[in-house]
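Quick one, tokens below:
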């Protein structure tokens, strides 16, 4: 390359100029002037451009690219059906929880889960002792009411008159006894008032006497202390004076001690010391006597004051008790007088025949007593729990020795169970949750229903009475039925709102029992003899719907109006006619034989997307 890029230097004096460089030479000169890095980048870009051109020709213009066959379908008249599906378990639509109507101890349970029972069969019993006692009491009250009615109709008997007189006498005696009790209580109050007042006076007198005596004792001790103090002070003064006289007379002859100490003070003589000691001891003894007298006075007066308080409290409690007794006795007098009046009125009333109104009232009391007897007899009968229908026992929730809970039975329950199985025996052990609450639950296996949880959007399409097809996978049985219940209370599972829908079977297939797994298909809506097309043939964007119609080999996008959208087909109300050929969306490749008509969004080599 260096040889190609060299230029010849013209010879001096030559007249011919060098030839201009060619276009290729200019490119080579520019290329040689680039840096090595720029050269490599340009080479890479050129190679990528060539590769892209080759791939484009290969993908677009290669006539050997395989084609995909276009699927078509004709518009036909048919029935468009929209259905809702779900799954659940079979349950009896006539399951009845049966419970005792009265409480008692269970004495026998005659059935178990899976047993077949008949109407009126005794299922269990409870202890009838209490119910029979209530029956006997009600029967006695009925007999008494009947006797009263008979007496009201016939008038008083001699025995009744004698009873009335005896009642008056007894009541009068009660009044006399009560009056005597009042008099005795009042006398006791007077005695207690006198005795307690005397006790208080005695305690107060003793307090005053003890106060005077102790005051005297304290005063005497204080007087003795003053007298002894005066006497002892005189004795001390005399002794000190005697010492002073002796010391004064002896002072000139006494020389100072060798140590230079002075003589003892005159008051330090033995007589003075003894007198002072005697005085101190005497005064100490007198003061102790005063303290003892004062303490004795306080103790004595405290005891006397406590005795006064006790006497006063005793008086209050005693008089309160006596007054209470008097009030009680007076109340007894009033009660006894009322009893006398009642007995006299009763006797007076018994002397005259009963009025028609009174006889009617007696008859009403007989009727009321008869109702009580019937109720008590019903209670005795209800100690036996009887089957209200013929069927199979699903659940027995009570045991011998347990207490039965008196409650209402006989209400139907139709809820699905989460267990599977077939036959009465398996249903009895797996349907406790669907049986309702009762001592025994009985189901009629000839009346089955399936409950499924349907999503909110589908549940809105379901109405009572719609037909349904029920399939039981375990037995490969199929049955028909209808929607008999739509529960308005929803449940939420995994953030999905569900509504329970019940389908009652027209006839229970053989081998299908309570708890069997079932699949439901409910015919929610249907349009008969309408133009229909597969759902796949319709492209929808909001409220705008289109189809691709092939006419004379040309595909054209046509807007259509739709009606009922079914499970696989859709009703078309306008836009196409019966027999029109619709192009279904392809899954990829180029549509064979398709064209690109005006007004469509199709293009060669790009597949059409479906709705």
């Amino acid at each position: 390359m260096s040889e190609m890029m060299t230029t010849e230097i013209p010879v001096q004096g030559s007249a011919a100029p060098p030839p201009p460089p060619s276009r290729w030479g200019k490119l080579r000169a520019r290329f040689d002037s680039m840096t090595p890095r720029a050269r490599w980048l340009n080479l890479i870009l050129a190679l990528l451009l060539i590769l892209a051109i080759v791939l484009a020709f290969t993908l677009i213009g290669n006539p050997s690219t395989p084609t995909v066959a276009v699927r078509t379908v004709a518009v036909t008249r048919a029935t468009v059906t929209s259905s809702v599906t779900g799954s659940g378990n079979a349950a009896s639509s006539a399951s009845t929880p049966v419970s005792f109507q009265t409480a008692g101890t269970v004495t026998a349970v005659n059935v178990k889960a899976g047993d077949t029972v008949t109407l009126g069969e005794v299922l269990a019993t409870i202890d009838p002792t209490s119910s029979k006692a209530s029956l006997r009491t009600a029967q006695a009250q009925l007999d008494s009411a009947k006797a009263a009615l008979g007496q009201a109709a016939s008038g008083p008997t001699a025995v009744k008159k004698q009873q009335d007189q005896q009642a008056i006498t007894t009541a009068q005696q009660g009044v006399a006894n009560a009056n005597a009790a009042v008099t005795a209580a009042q006398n006791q109050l007077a005695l207690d008032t006198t005795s307690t007042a005397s006790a208080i006076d005695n305690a107060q007198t003793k307090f005053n006497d003890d106060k005077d005596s102790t005051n005297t004792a304290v005063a005497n001790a204080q007087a003795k202390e003053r007298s002894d103090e005066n006497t002892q002070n005189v004795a001390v003064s005399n002794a000190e004076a005697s010492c002073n006289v002796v010391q004064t007379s002896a002072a000139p002859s006494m020389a100072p001690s060798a140590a230079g100490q002075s003589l003892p003070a005159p008051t330090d003589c033995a007589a003075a010391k003894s007198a002072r000691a005697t005085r101190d001891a005497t005064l100490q003894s007198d003061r102790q006597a005063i303290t003892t007298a004062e303490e004795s006075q306080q103790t004595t007066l405290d005891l006397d004051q406590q005795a006064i308080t006790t006497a006063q409290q005793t008086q209050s409690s005693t008089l309160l008790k006596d007054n209470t007794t008097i009030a009680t006795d007076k109340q007894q007098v009033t009660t006894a007088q009322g009893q006398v009046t009642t007995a006299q009125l009763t006797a007076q009333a018994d002397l005259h025949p009963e009025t028609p109104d009174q006889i009617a009232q007696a008859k009403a009391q007989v009727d009321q007593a008869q109702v009580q007897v019937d109720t008590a007899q019903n209670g005795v009968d209800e100690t036996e729990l009887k089957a209200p229908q013929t069927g199979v026992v699903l659940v027995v929730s009570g045991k011998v020795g347990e207490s039965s809970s008196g409650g209402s039975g006989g209400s139907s329950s139709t809820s699905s169970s989460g267990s599977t199985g077939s036959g009465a025996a398996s249903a009895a052990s797996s349907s406790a949750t669907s049986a309702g609450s009762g001592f025994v639950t009985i189901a009629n296996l000839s009346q089955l229903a399936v409950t499924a949880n349907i999503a909110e959007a589908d549940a809105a399409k379901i109405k009572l009475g719609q037909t349904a097809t029920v399939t039981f996978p375990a037995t490969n049985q199929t049955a028909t039925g209808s929607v008999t219940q739509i529960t308005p209370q929803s449940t939420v599972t995994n953030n999905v709102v569900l509504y329970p829908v019940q389908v009652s079977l027209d006839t229970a297939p053989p081998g299908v029992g309570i708890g069997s797994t079932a699949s439901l298909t409910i015919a929610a809506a249907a349009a008969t003899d309408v133009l229909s097309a597969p759902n796949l043939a319709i492209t929808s964007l909001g409220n705008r719907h289109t189809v691709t119609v092939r006419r004379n080999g040309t595909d054209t996008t046509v807007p259509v109006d739709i009606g009922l959208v079914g499970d696989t087909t859709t009703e078309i109300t306008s836009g196409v006619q019966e027999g029109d050929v619709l192009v279904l969306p392809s899954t990829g490749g180029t549509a064979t034989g398709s064209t690109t008509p005006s007004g469509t969004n199709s293009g060669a080599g790009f597949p059409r997307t479906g709705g």
